[in-house]
Each structure stands twice: as structure tokens, then as C-alpha cells.
Amino acid sequence: MRQPYPVLRSSVDPADETFENNRSANLEALEQLSKALGKANAGGGEKYNARHLDAGKLLPRERVEALLDEGGPFLEVCALAGLDVDGQRPGAGVVGGVGVVSGVECVITASEATVKGGAVSELGVRKSARLAEIADQNRLPSISLIESAGADLPNQSKIFIPGGAGFRDITRHSRNRVPTVCLVFGSSTAGGAYIPGMSDYVVMVREQAQVYLAGPPLVKMATGEETDHEELGGAEMHSRVSGVSDYLARDEMDAIRLGREIMAHLEWHKQGPPPRTHVEDPAHDPEELLGIASADLRVPFDARDVIARIVDGSRFSEFKPLYGNTLVCGWAHLHGYPVGILANNGVLFTESANKGAQFIQLCNQSSIPLLFLQNITGFMVGRKVEQEGIIKAGAKLINAVANSTVPAITIMVGGSFGAGNYAMCGRAYQPRFLFTWPNHRIAVMGGKQLAGVLEIIKRDAAAKKGEEVDEDNLKLVKMMIEHQIDSESSAFFATARLWDDGIIDPRDTRDVVALCLSASHSAPVHGTSTWGVFRH
User: Fold this and answer.
1) How far is Cα 351 from Cα 326, in angstroms, rounded to an integer?
2) Which pLDDT belongs to residue 221?
3) Model-level pTM?
4) How far apart, in Å, are the Cα atoms of 199 and each of 3, 146, 307, 401?
């Protein structure tokens, strides 16, 4: 049945100079993204990859590829964690995301064994925790592909406590009847041994998997006992003697076959409603998103032009179109899933904040997931809006975002500054998934604004002391601060520190959101009518 929502019109002109400038800048940023992803995909580099292959092993990404259903999607998460961060490899030593195995959507995590033998770094622990959070929030079974030397010992002080939470998460998934499967491909020592130990199902590869709390050298130091790798923790021993292993695989491909077999016999069923069977492509070309997304965030663009290129049939039922027009709200379908969309069209005023809070309540009333398209400089400031109660309105919107129980997905399509980040469901408000476009910028405030505020403060302080301002020094400080803030505001800086789940090509937004919605519907989709106190 054809959707009755009206089709959005669009006046985007691909021949316009601004469009062409945006497209050029976004293509350049995507080239930078491609190079960064190439570094992450390279693992430990040519030398260590060759050593791994010479041992007759599959590379971690090859293991993931073999595990996935043929032609099935893989939504990689935090692919650039650790990029240009001191002491970290791009990817943080972990490959992870959401994929389909034997028809079951699940979270897949693979040790990057070519990086320090799969030893877990500080950011690797944080990335693994994020993947566990995705599994928990969306009720997704997990498959771990393990070959790990345990904690990166020189950095143990940064890993010890949060690393323990990872083992806790595995057992809690089991308690919640969400299965965890572990395929062990190589040496898994100390903390690496607890992952199979905690998992519901364990497969070990013959003459390759070695799982023990301490290897032969440490055992000899601690107890004086002479032993070898196989009798201490080999796959045969764990499959025949200790019972730590449930299945003994002939080789890596057999382990992957067994993992797929386990997922098949789970008879896993989604608990959320299925999508509509009739799906329309957008009436407007998603390719044009590259020219719509502003490379210079001071140049605004209409959020409706983005919506028109990602939702089914470009059909959108707008809510309160004449009120609070700096926040666009309305209903649509995306790959058949119903969504309530909140998209910024300027700074948030009292009216737009009130409108957003009401819209979130309505979506919860009907158990409709939320999609936030965030491009926000923050809330309006000044005497007039303060007297009108902008703080109350902003608190109301943040209250609604924080207490909403339907799945929320956030895409950063532009700026994300100040409390606007919170009000539009930034990372701190636990959206199920959060991805960014390469033009994304994020900070408490922009570099020029922050430098200007500090200049006013320094001049006022000098005036109170009756001192002269050192203009040359002040100019230098402003330049340094502006440069620092601007460099720390980029999409690449943010994604390297796991402030989001990854940078995506704007043209892929529709499919990425659809994968997120599909994963979210593995869990029940229920709204709430319970909120904190709304200040009036």
C-alpha cells in the first residue's frame, strides 16, 4: 500500500557554486577517510600479517568475512578508534561490528592478532565495552573470534579495572538469555582465557588454540612445574579433559563452520515489530547529499533536503511545521521501519525545544524509534530568551531525550556544540548507534568563540587590576587556543576517541540507519509514559 505521507520537495541545484564547493570538500574528506580506514584494515602491517599467514592462519578480517552470511552486511563499529593517538594502532587492536550469521543478527568481535599478538590496549578495552553495550541494548547474540595475549602489560594500570567489566558483561548477557559464542584461533592467555571461560559456547582449533591463565614459563617460575603448551592449555586437552571447550575444530574454517552451526540452532527470533514489506527508494538522489552537507558549518542547509534523500519515497509527515521552525520534527519510514525524525534547522529556541519534547513523547506513546539528525550550534542565548525560560525549555527537551525508551539513532550531519549535543541525543545520552559525516565538528564551542570569550575575560581581569594588556601575547594565546580547539573538533579526532561509532559516507546514511534500526528491533520496542519533572 502506498504511504499517504506527502513527498518532500527539494530546490537543491547541483549547478550551484555552494553545492559544488561542498561536494568537492566532502569528496576530499572521504578520500582522507579511505586512507585512514586502509591503515586500520592493515592490522599490524605487512611484516606481521605475513608472519600470521605463514603460520597457516586467516587474518582477523578474513575470519569475520568467512563467518558472515554470503553477501550479508557488516556494520563496522569504531573502525578508527586510536587513529593518531599516541601508542595506539588505528582500530585499537579490535575488529568489531554488527553482522548476520546463519540468519541471526549478532555482534562480532575479533582480536587483531597481528598487533602485539592481540594484546588488549586501553582503547581496545573501551571499544570492546562499546560493542558489548550494543549487544546488551539491542539484545544481540555475540560471537568473539579470539587470539589474544591478554592485557598490554606496560599499560595494565589503564586496563585492569575496565577490563574486568568486560568479563562481567559476558556473564550478564548469559543471565539475560542472550547467548555468547567464542571461537578460539590461537594463544589466549590470562585475560584472553577468561573470554572463552565466560562464554556460553566455546570452539577451539586443534593444534592452534592454547588457553591458560599462565603459560609454561610463568608456571615454572610460580610453581617449579615443567609443562608444555598442549598439556597445559591445548585445544585437545580442553576438549577432552578440562571441558573448557565444547567443540574441537579441525582447522580455522571448521571452527567458523561450527560457529555458524551454533548460531543456526539458537532459533533466534527478534522481539521488535518487522518492517513494512513495501519499500520505496527516495524520490531525490542520495548522491546529492555530498553537495548539501556544508563543508563550512557557518553555511546553513535545510534539514528537509537531507530527510528527502534518506527516507522511503522521500515521504515525510511533518509535526508542527509552523511552530519552532529551527527544529524539524515528523514521521517517515526508512527501509520499511517507522521513524520519528528530529533534525536541526538552526539554533534551538524555546519553541523548538518545547516542540521536540512533545514530539518525543508522542513517538514513545506509539513506540516509534527516533532518528536524530544533529547539526546544532546550541541553544539561543541573551536576555530576552533567558527571561522567556530557555533553560526550562532546554531542560524539558533533555529530560525527554534522557528518559525516552524507544530506540534512538543519531547521525551527526554537521556541527555539534554545547548543550545542543545533549539535547539532540549525543553520546552521553546513549543512542543505540551514533555515526557522523566527515564534515562533522564537535566541541563545547567553536575555536573563535572560545578564544573571544577568553580575550574578554583577560581584558576584564587586567582592567580590574589596573594593568595594561600585552596585546602581542594575547594575540598569540588566542591563535594557539583557536588552533587547538579547531584541531580537536574534527570528525577524525572525535572518532579516534570513540565519541561516536564511526564516520560514514553521507550517501550511505540510509543503509546505515536501516542496519541500525534492524539491529534495534532484535529487542522489544516499547515507549514510555514516565518522565522526570518538566519545569513549567
Assistant:
1) 9
2) 82
3) 0.92
4) 45, 12, 42, 34
Q: What Rg do the C-alpha atoms of the chain give, in angstroms? A: 25
* CA dist., res. 397 & res. 202, Å (int): 45
- Residues 474, 479, 484, 490, CA torsion sign: positive
Is the Cβ–Cβ distance between 404 and 364 less than 8 Å? Answer: yes
Over the chain, what is the mean pLDDT?
90
The span from the first CA to the last CA of the chain, in angstroms, equals 43
Identity of the residue numbered 170: I
DSSP assignment of 186-232, as one string? Answer: SEEETHHHHHHHHSSEEEEETTT-EEESS-HHHHHHHH-----HHHH
Residue ranges in 272-327 assigned as alpha helix (H)? 289-292, 303-307
pLDDT at 155: 65
Q: What is the Cα–Cα distance from 362 to 374, expressed in whole angstroms?
A: 20
Q: Parallel, antiparallel, or unpaired: how do β-strands 370-376 and 337-344 relate? A: parallel
Query: What integer is the mean pLDDT of 417-425?
Result: 92
CA dist list (Å): 53 to 46, 207, 234, 256, 514: 10, 16, 21, 17, 36
162 contacts 156 by C-beta, under 8 angstroms = no
The CB density around residue 49, as the number of other CB atoms within 10 Å, is 16
Q: Are strands 74-76 and 94-101 parallel, antiparallel or unpaired?
A: antiparallel
Q: Which residue has the cell 514513545?
A: 364
pLDDT of residue 28: 96
Other CB atoms within a 10 A radius of the CB of residue 190 amount to 18
DSSP type of residue 1: -
Distance CA 340, CA 333 (A): 9
Q: What confidence score (pLDDT) does residue 425 get?
A: 97
